[in-house]
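Re-run with default settings, no changes from the original entry. Doing this only to confirm the output is reproducible before filing.
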Amino acid sequence: MKPLFFSLLVLFFFASCSSDEDLTFPPIGQVWMAKNLDVDVFRNGDPIKKVENGADWDSAVANKQSAWCYPDFDPTIGAKYGKIYNYYAVSKTDNFGIHLLAPNGYHIPSEVEFNALIGYLGGGQLAPIKMASPPPSWPSQDSSIAYNQSGFSALPGGRLPSTISGFQNIDTRAYWWTSDMTVMRMDLSLIKTEGSVDDRGGYYVRCKRDN
């Protein structure tokens, strides 16, 4: 009974689920969505343009238009990983500076908030194991390792840095926007900030509940 009890205790220590959509981390006072954002309208009801090819993505960027797409423009892949959002969808705010992409009661987390979670989970080199969905979600996962103790269920959905370079790292790395308009990058060995990115790129969003 001891191994089972210990495993359950470890899982509770790292995170407890407050609903099907939320993960709570009481020691650091954070509550996160349990999956990537998957919306096609802003919280005020305005639609977000769906993009289905590179030319339309570039057009949205040129016109500073909010847009989203599926990874590799493929709905089948999107069903697994979620939606990729462009710079203008993430950066759109109301008159009070609130990002409209996040649903009511949530916000796009800052680098500081991401780093607080990463620090709580052991730092940049240890946190990925506790955040990554279990095998066979990521390449070369060791079946003897207890992945996803945090319940974060990170998936390697890749990114779209620009249509010139095309989609990259699908099935090998995860990327999320921050409210600072930087990007967090994760593989199984490290999670860290990617730094500033330009407005041509597309990445996922994982929301945090308002305090």
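Confidence is low (pLDDT under 50) at residues 1-14. The chain is about 25% helix and 20% strand.
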